[in-house]
Design brief:
Blueprint lengths: L1 E7 L2 E6 L2 E2 H8 L3 H10 L7 E2 L5 E3 L1 H13 L8
């Protein structure tokens, strides 16, 4: 979801309002199953909005929370 914020001299500056889960995890550098696990564990709140197809939509604050948790999380070596 994009909003045109300012248009000067034919150049439009665009600001995003919402990110789909795939975009949010790409920005955070984590796999989507990790995000879904964090939501299930209550580490990240469920997305407040969904699009017309039922896909999660995260706002900038929520994406920043995902990035912060990803930065603070030490990757595991996998299950044994």
């Amino acid at each position: 979801m994009l909003t045109i914020v300012n248009q000067t001299m034919g150049v439009a500056m665009v600001q995003r309002e919402h990110w789909h889960a795939a975009d949010a995890v790409a920005e955070a550098g984590i796999p989507k199953p990790t995000l879904l696990c964090w939501i299930k564990q209550g580490k990240i709140a469920e997305a407040a909005k969904r699009d017309g197809n039922g896909w999660r939509l995260f706002d900038r604050r929520e994406v920043d929370e995902i990035i912060a948790l990803a930065s603070a999380t030490v990757p595991s070596e996998g299950r044994k």
